[in-house]
Amino acid sequence: MTQKSLYLISLILLVSLILSLGTTYAQQAHSLYEESRTVIPDNLPWYPIVVIGDNRPTNVNSVQLPPIFYMVINETKEIYPIAVIGTGDHTGMGTPEQINVLYNALKGLQNVWLALGNHDLDAHQEKYWTQVIAPDHYHVDDIPGWRIYVLNSECRLSMQWKAQVNNIWNNLDNRSLILVFHRPIYPRVEHNLDPERANYLLNKIAQHGHVELVLQGHWHGYASEVRKGITWIITGGAGAPLYDYPKTPPDNATIVLERNHYIVLILYPNQTFTYEPILAGDGSGTLKIIRINTTAYKIVNTKLDIFKKPAWIPVRLHTNVSSWTVYTSLIVPPNTTITVNYEINGYDVKIRSNATNWYAYATPPGGANNAVVGKPVDNVAELKLYKLQTTTKTTTITTATSTPIITTTTTTSQASTTSSITTTSQPATPTTATVQQTTAQQSSQTEIIAISAAIIIGAIIAAIFIIKKK
Q: What is the pTM of this model?
């Protein structure tokens, strides 16, 4: 074989390896945080959110999550909120297998924003968590009037915690703040964040203000307290073993021991909010969405709150009308049956419901910052899906020190005259340790390919060098 042929073969191998690596990188999936990101319109009357915390198994080595957690997730998928917030300890130890199971349980929900807990880091797989689930700290400004800032309360006070806290108010403008982190500050439940980190954050809040709500976990129960106009909530009842202390609640705090639960939260653009702690598990009532026919639904709510009193529940129905997605957001009162009927006539969609607090909206393919919104008049909301000039904004915010990257494109969408309605809800089911390949697994394969490529290229260069010497 001639020296020229060797050069040619080496070049072909090199190009093939580069193309292979590029294809592997291009095919990588995103984290749950990125995959679940869905454009949230700026012009909705209110925004329903579900908050969960501490759903780790009792046996921290178990790959399986507790059955009560799947019950919570199944109800969450019925509610289909605009976002899901987690306050940490979502796995037993944070092993790759446990993280994979969590990923699969939550997949299909929109805008999943989880915080890290101490148990999520016990296996020292923080990199895997950030690749598969979410960054260790980040913020989102997607809901008008609000910034949701997710902190990592497991980091060190020096540098890391201070850097996170110092960035909370950067470019905040006139938004109100919701802080999310694992170890609680208030109420005092004998299982709180250490004084150094707590005082640093409290001093910054006193200095800068804007904080309206703080969502925390770590203590396995429900607790809430209002201090100086700030509502502090601990929600740690989504599956972890429940605590039976403290026996005496702290002053001005509400504490409920040993009851599984989650939170339904409504955010309003005027920077107010309402919430309800919802009892979970056996004896907590049910939420049923029954499809009567292709254009009619019945919603039955017999759910109880954590105090075992009848509870209101937000529900967001989602249907496809041609290439558009039509959402109907309703507050379902306790012990009530709500009906929803759709009437489609070309570009006109009429929704009828006997609910008293509800609205409908539609977004074209890819979502839109300004949706077509219909508020009910005489129990009817009308959506006209004509040509809509939309500005579609995709916002990716990774860590507190990153600059938000905003890509804006203008598209024109038109509803088709042939319309159909379909639903895409799917219940969660317990997942085995053998799960679908996730981002981190693909990333590991990429690293292996990269190392192999480097070795092969090095060998080729060495061979060429030897041939030249001969």
A: 0.81
Q: What is the pLDDT of residue 249?
A: 87
Q: Give me the long-range contacts of 152-155 (CB less than 8 A, separation at least 24).
A: 152/115, 152/116, 152/181, 153/88, 153/115, 153/116, 153/181, 153/182, 153/183, 153/193, 153/197, 154/116, 154/117, 154/118, 154/121, 154/182, 154/183
Number of structural domains found in the chain:
2
Place of tokens 């639903």: 423
Separation of alpha carbons 442 and 104, rounded Å: 15
CA dist., res. 417 & res. 437, Å (int): 39
Q: Are 406 and 395 in contact (CB under 8 A)?
A: yes
CA-wise closest residue to 262 among 237, 240, 287, 284: 237
Q: What is the pLDDT of residue 367?
A: 84
Residues of the chain with pLDDT below 50 are 15, 17-28, 387, 389-427, 429-446, 448-449, 466
Query: In 3D, which of 370, 385, 369, 389 has the Cα closest to residue 321?
Result: 385
In a domain, 12, yes or no: no
Domain closes at, from 284, 301, 329? 284
Q: Nearest CA to 42 among 287, 311, 373, 445?
A: 373
258, 315: one domain: no
Count the residues in the chain: 470
pLDDT at 110: 97
DSSP state of 425: -
Does a structural domain hold residue 217? yes
> How far apart, in whole angstroms, are the C-alpha atoms of residue 28 and residue 18?
16
- Residue reference for tokens 């260069």: 461
- DSSP H helices, 147-263, are 162-167, 195-208
Last residue of a domain, one of 259, 284, 309: 284
Under 8 Å between Cβ of 162 and 197: no
Where does residue 443 fall: left (phi above 0), alpha (psi -120 to 50 degrees), or beta otherwise?
A: alpha
Neighbours of 269 (CB within 10 A): 15
For 60, residues 6+ apart whose C-beta sits below 8 A from its C-beta are 92, 93, 119, 122
Together in a domain, 86 and 214: yes
Residue 3 forms part of a structural domain: no
Its domain, for residue 348, covers 286-421
pLDDT value of position 22: 41
Nearest alpha carbon to residue 138 among 156, 109, 164, 159: 164
List the strands of the sheet with 287-293, edge to edge: 287-293, 296-301, 336-345, 348-353, 380-384
**Please, are residues 33 and 133 in contact by the beta-carbon 8 Å criterion?**
yes
Determine the pLDDT at residue 207: 98
Look at residue 10 in the predicted model and tell me its pLDDT. Answer: 53
* Same domain, residue pair 274 and 303: no
pLDDT of residue 323: 86
